[in-house]
Amino acid sequence: MSLYKAIKRPFGLTYYYVKDEVLPVWRQALLRADARREVNRSSRHRLTGVTLAELIGVRTFSGELIMDQMCMPPHAFQDATMNDHDDIRPLLAIAQAMQPRTIVELGTAHGSTVANLCKFCPEAHVWTVNAPAEDMTGSITTFELTKQSIGWVYREHGYAPRVTQIFENTLELEMGAHLGDARIDLGIIDACHDTEFVMNDFAKLRPWMSERGVIVFHDTHPSMRKHLFGSYRACVRLREQGYDIRHLRETWWGVWTKNWDALPLAR
Ligand SMILES: C[S@@+](CC[C@H](N)C(=O)[O-])C[C@H]1O[C@@H](n2cnc3c(N)ncnc32)[C@H](O)[C@@H]1O
Predict the structure, then answer these.
(1) How many Å lie between the centroid of ligand 1 and the Cα of residue 153?
(2) C-alpha 37, offset from chain centre
(3) Secondary structure letter of residue 20 according to DSSP
(4) How much is the pTM?
C-alpha cells in the first residue's frame, strides 16, 4: 500500500462511520428532544390510557401466531431492547373481538401482520400499503424493500386472494380510489413514524372509517424513547385537534375510535 493510501484510508473510514453511524443517532436524539419539549408544553393533551379489557371486554387473543419475519414485539429476531412486551397479541385480540370485514394497514413490510390478520379474521379483506424502496421518503422508515420482498409472508401462507397490495408512498395515497364501496373497520398505521407522516396517514384513513371503525397507531408510547417519539407526538397533535386518541396500556399502540362510549368493541 502506498503511503498516500495508508494515510487516506483511516480518514475515509472515519468519514463514513461519522456520516452513517454517528450523525443519524445525533439527528434522532435532537428530533426526540424537540418532540419531548413540544409534548411537555401540551401536557393536557397527553394520551390517556385504556386497557385491553376496557377496549374489548374480558376477551384476549388465543391462537398460534405466524411468526415469519414478525416485525413487532415479540419480533421474530431476538432483540432484547424491543422484546420486553407484546404488541401483536393485543392487536389480534382487538381484531378477533371486532371481526372486521375491511382492514387497511399502512406499512406492510414482509407481511407477517397481514398473514395473522387473515388467519384470525376469516371474513376480512386486507388492503395493505408499502412504498418500494425507490419511492420512499421520510426518516423513521424501518425497511427499504423491493416489490418482491414486500408482503412475501402472507403470499407464502396462501392469503394473496384476500389481500390487495398497494405499492405507494402513503403521502400519495388516495384510499377512496382503492376501496370502492367498502368502509374501514380496522385501520393500522405502521409505515413511516415521522410525526408529519403519521398525521398524514390518519387523515388518509379517517374519512373512510365505518361507524364502528378503529384506527391503531404502532410505535406510540408515552416514554417517547428510541423511535417512539414521532408517532406519539402526532397523536398529541391530533388530540389537540379534537381526536380522542388513547394509549393502549402495556403496549406500543395508540387507539382511536369515533365513539368511545360504545365500548367494548365487538362485532
Ligand atoms: C414498521 S414496518 C411495518 C411492519 C408491518 N406492519 C408488520 O407488522 O409486519 C414499516 C414499513 O413501512 C414502509 N414505509 C415507510 N415509509 C413509508 C411510506 N411513506 N409509505 C409507504 N410505506 C412506507 C417501510 O418500507 C416498512 O416496510
Answers:
(1) 14
(2) 23
(3) I
(4) 0.93
Q: How many domains does the chain have?
A: 1
Structural domain containing residue 180: 42-262
How far apart, in whole angstroms, are the C-alpha atoms of residue 46 and residue 236?
Answer: 6
What would the grid cell of residue 232 be? 406519539
166 Cα–ligand 1 center, Å = 12
Angle at 230 between CA 126 and CA 220, to 5 degrees: 60
Is the shortest distance between the CB of 69 and ligand 1 below 6 Å? no
The percent of residues above 90 in pLDDT, for the chain, comes to: 75
114 lies in a domain?
A: yes
How far apart CA 72 and CA 82 sit, in angstroms, is 8
pLDDT 10s digits, 164-185: 999 999 999 999 999 999 999 9
Segment 180-195, tens digit of pLDDT: 999 999 999 999 999 9
- State the Cα–Cα distance between residues 166 and 38, nearest whole angstrom: 34
Helices (H), the chain: 3-17, 23-41, 52-56, 88-98, 112-120, 152-156, 175-179, 195-205, 229-240
- Which residue of 142, 194, 200 sits with most ligand 1 atoms within 8 Å of its CB, as the best mutation to test the pocket? 142
- Look at residue 147 and tell me whether its pLDDT is greater than 60: yes
Residue 210 CA to residue 98 CA, distance in Å, equals 12
In a domain, 239, yes or no: yes
In a domain, 47, yes or no: yes
